[in-house]
Structure formats: structure tokens, C-alpha cells
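fwd from M.: "can u put these together and see what the complex looks like"

so here's what she sent:
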Amino acid sequence: MTPNRLEITRPDDWHLHLRDGAALASVIGHTAERFARAIVMPNLKPPVTTVVQAEDYRRRIMACLPKDSRFQPLMTLYLTESMSVEEIARAKASDNVFAVKYYPAGATTNSDSGVRDLSHVYPVLEAMEKHELPLLLHGEVTDSAIDIFDRERVFIERHLMPLRERFPALRMVLEHITTRDAVEFVTAAPANVAATLTAHHLLLNRNAIFAGGINPHHYCLPILKRETHRLALLQAATSGDTHFFLGTDSAPHAREAKESSCGCAGLYTSHAALELYAEAFDQVGRLDQLEAFASFHGPDFYRLPRNTDRITLDRKPWMVPDEYPLAASTCRPMRAGESVAWSMLEARAS
Ligand code: DOR
Ligand code: ZN
């Protein structure tokens, strides 16, 4: 029997793009209504590379929140080849920086300042290992000779396995995993390695990019994969394995930037984030596992307290609008003009 109501500990989003300025003000509400905390990605223009910049960005986020909101942004630094080991010590000493994000240069949105050669950041990784500061990985090679659907698997073989050998105690999160290969790698790893999973990779396979014509709103990076991979991700998310936790990778782009001759990567899912995960878990009859995945495994990995207030979802469909405001433009959300099977009811203080 599947329940029609689900009450769980308030979740956190362990991978989120909030952007900045007017776009930040447009999107923050959706996340703050659902989640207590979020790990905020640093791929702004220019990127957030220092603790001072991260703390400034945090203040801009806080200024956009409603007065009574208790939402907490958890900041990250953008790893560049010129980052100093002193910056890692400052990050560790800061109350607001929780991780460092690795983008392979050129892999995705605003990744030009990313890392070209991992060996150039070994001293920084050594400092992170020492300070127990997690490294968040966009795990894809950028080698144009490698098929786009294979870039995560090849990253694991070429870069992640050697990195694990060199820095065995480094705490790492392989972000937004999309393949059975990543599931197998993370499942077999010790507890200092984890992975986040997005709602869109749990619900969609690569056919969604081409269903009835090309759909730029289903283009994201890492790109959607074939059904066998989606099934492996769903199995991992719903297994109860503590390596896996919620990270939406919700990444708003203006509609015209996606509906373009060279469209940007990213799905916007914050408007229905938890509701979409509930659909995915329901598909395999594992709603009983949603709370651990959404609310326990993440804080346990980051060594933060679990939230104490609760959130209720009802099996009650609602229609997603065609678009939401995004600064001076609009953003087309996942499921635009279609229904989501679960609704968020209320939040109760503990
Ligand atoms: O689809 C994506 N969008 N993948 C990323 O890695 C970055 C993100 C963005 O910032 O738009
Ligand atoms: Zn991301």
C-alpha cells in the first residue's frame, strides 16, 4: 500500500545554483520554502574563489530572504589552479564555507576558470585532506575525443581512481551522478566518498531531450543518460545506502538563453524539488526511503546536525506554470504546463 501523505524531517539541498542579483531574488523563495539549508555553487561570473567573496555572496543571499525565513546558505569556493593553501585554511576557519568545488575547465556553465590539470592543485587537495574540507566534483572529462555520454565514466577511470589513491582520506562528493558506473564506484567506496543525485536524472532518460522534437529545457550537464543508467540511479537513491543524498543541481537560465542556437545547460527544479523526488521514489515503491535520502545522509556526511522541523507532502497533483520570473526575463521550469503528482502541504516547527 502506498501512503497518500508523507511527513518527513525537513530536507536540505546539497547542490544548488542560486545565481546572483535579480535572478537570485527571483529563485531563492522556492528553495527556502522547502529546504532548511543548501550547498550553494560558486560558478558565478566572476567565480567565488575566496572566503571573503563567499561571505559577501552569502550576505547577498540572506538579504533576499523573507524576514521570518530560517534558511541557511552553505557556501563553497570555486577551485582554480591559482588557489592558495592559505585560502583552504581560511575556509576551514570560516563558519560559512563548507566545501570546495572542482570544475574541469570548459566542462559546463562558467567553468572557464576551472582546473586544466589536477596535478596543478595537488598542494591544495593535500591541505583539504588535512583540514577535512570536502571536495565537490563535477565528474566529467572535457576531452572532445570522448563521447559526451561517456564523459562521466571516463572521468572516474582517468581522474577519480588516481585521485582516490593519492588522497585516500580526502572527503569527496561526486556531484549529480548520472551513470551505473558512478553508482558502482561510490557504492564500493568508504564513507569519505559520497554522491548527490538530482530529481531530473532520477525521472528522465536521454529520450526526454528528443521527445517529439529537440527540447533544450531537458539539456543539462552531465547530460541525461539511457534508461539502464536511470534505473541504477533510482536503485541507489532508494536503497538506504548512506553514500547517496539529495542535490537538485537546479540551475535556472533565462528562457531565451536555453531556446537558442547554442543553448545553456541546466534544468530548473527548485519550484517542485521535493515533490519530484517523491514521484521518483514512489515509482519504485520506496517512499519509506525518501526521508533518509533527503534529510539524513547529507547532514551526516557534512557532519552537521539533522534538521528538527518537519514537512508534509500530499499525493495531490498540481499544474506547474509555463514559466516563472527570472530577473528581467523568465525561466521555464521542469514539467512546465504539466502536473506534478505530489504537493507540499505545510511546514511545522519542531
Ligand atoms: O546543467 C548544468 N548547469 N550543469 C552544471 O554543471 C552547471 C549548471 C549551471 O550552472 O547552469
Ligand atoms: Zn551544478
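replying to her w this: Residues 151-166 form the longest helix (16 residues).
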